[in-house]
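Let's practice the habit of predicting before peeking. Look at the sequence and jot down your guess about where helices and strands might fall. Then scroll down.
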Amino acid sequence: MSHLLQQDASIEYLNNGGSIIRFVITEDDSAHSHLVSTLRKTKTENQYAFFSVPAHSCEINRPDRVLNQLASSWNTESYAIAVIKKVWKQLHYNASESILLTDASRESGQDPDPLFSKFNRTLRDLLGRNHHNQDSQINSVRFNRDFVNGAINSMISLIEGDDSEIKKFESWLRGERLTAAERRSIGIMWPIKRDNATSILRSMTAFSSLAGWGGSILHLDIRCVTDPIRYDNIKAPNAYSKPKRIALYQWLREIIDQTQHFSNCLIVVEVGPTFTDQSQFGIGVGIYDALKNRITDDVRLDENDISNPSAVIVPISGELYV
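Done guessing? Here is the structure:
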């Protein structure tokens, strides 16, 4: 794994705003442990946020459930406060003691109303909602509209001393029950479903960068689908039907197609060796042509040629490349 993050300048590319997807084949439990260790080391060394879905922790073929799982350990309020402090810093107010508008107004000697207008405009620029601004236009691709509306309204409430809206926003991300009226009170029109989950996941990684992380690592462990009985650390594998596998591969194809719209993100999909099976009657990538065709060159790669630093598929063992 380390050869991908050093020899081809992947870290530099990520730090400059780019995103990369890799399918990593782990042969056994030892290789899995080394991969996770390497990712966590990369996270620490580069100050990245780390999003990980362990094998069999949720219905991995359901992107909405994966997102809810990731959001369950995402401290939404702390990320929001970090972004608020970033906005205040741009407005020349040190919010180390307080993020409240009243305190910012008093410390800066500015009236609350015009100061609020400056805060609102700067925040919308960061989150891609002022389309006259070039940076804002770039960010508008990275952020889902419902996510941005919820984040903006929640942060505005926080600087006014109200944390009830950020709790609604967090509940929405975690898939907890909200009424339509509760969603709309913070500008969110739709619950999280399969068709909007990827763009919201993309928004979470971009928001993490705004909150001060150098980038993000997104680790999706799908070994319970590709090789459900190969690994000791997958305790109780589900029986994934062919339609569920195809649904998962369809989502992975969607992520590949949207990789350029992620921000500073290394996407690692951990698979077992069966993933590269090209048979249309098997359980590997061969059952879904749209994904297979996007990684065909690497699927056909000679098994002994594992040194290509730009390969999409990376086979590793417990001893190699860590």
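How did you do? Residues 76-173 form one domain.
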